[in-house]
Amino acid sequence: MGSSGVQIVCVFLGMLGLVGAIVCCAIPRWKVTAFTGQTIVIAQSVEEGLWMNCVVQSTGQQQCKKYDSLLMLSADLQAARGMVIISCMLCSLCLLMLFAGADFTTCVESESAKAKISLVAGIGLILGGLLVMIPVSWSAHNTVRDFNDPLVVASRKRELGACIFVGWAAGGLLILAGGLLCCFSKVKSGGSPGAAKYYSNGGASAPNKNYV
């Protein structure tokens, strides 16, 4: 069936988006800067993430430190923590639902129930994609604004890290997967469930209308 192929593609896209969201949550590459020391020529790269910041020397040595307090983070990173975590949990749940209600599985027998489950999973994937796109775009906006602000000290300016672009890609994949599910999940309406159940038992249970 065509819907089965679409659901397989959506599962693949959803898993890629979920992996991207997990990478954004775990890797400290939201904000990156590079500068050269004034006394000794030592190139350093400062990397900031949701949970820690790292200083990478030109020799390859890396030192990471977790944030001492949540209040030390900027507003965009504070919101990003909750949104990205909720997105990962929501997308994982939606993918499990999609596996259970997909046409290529037999966990659910009812066709109408499968369509409803796929529709709910699609809506959840769209919400999960938005929960990734919003904090990533917010952080990117603040980073670009501070970089172009002449009042910000040069050593405090940051550039867009790799997690920003990974987050945009992950959010786009999740929204695409959810949109495809919503478009191809057609809930069938018509006929009462009781009547369908009655006639599905076989011809012996069907009433004989030839009797007077």
Task: Summarize the structure in words.
The protein starts with a helix and ends in a 13-residue tail after the last helix. It is elongated, with a radius of gyration of 25 Å. Strands 4-3-2-1-5 form a five-stranded antiparallel β-sheet. It is α+β, with helices and mostly antiparallel strands. The chain has five helices and five strands. The protein has a domain at 2-29 and 72-186: Butyryl-CoA Dehydrogenase, subunit A, domain 3, CATH 1.20.140.150.
In brief, what are we looking at here?
By secondary structure, this protein is an alpha+beta fold. 56% of the residues lie in helices and 12% in strands. It has 5 helices and 5 strands, in the order αββββααβαα.
